[in-house]
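Continuing the series of single-chain predictions for the mutant panel. This is the parent chain; the variants come on the following pages.
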Amino acid sequence: MLEDLQDFSNRPVVFYNVENLFDIVDDPNNPGDDEYTPSGEMKWDEERYNKKLEALSEAISFSGKFNPIFIGFVEVENKGVLEDLSKKGKLQSSNYSA
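Parent structure:
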């Protein structure tokens, strides 16, 4: 068991406040997402959403030589946005799950 853990000794653990990571879909059960829709106050659209995902992917990948073994997030709307993030940039090769 200890030998298995040594494989991860160079992999960082990251905690990241992603500051309002919302998809563009209005969830009627979540009144907090209304401003992060195409018609909302932030005019949140697919292009802006994907730009944010790409930027976050890049920032997380710069945390060291290897992608983090564990990433904790704050200010995330739902599991779907984490799944979208895990498919961006260098993160897609790490097989992350939300």
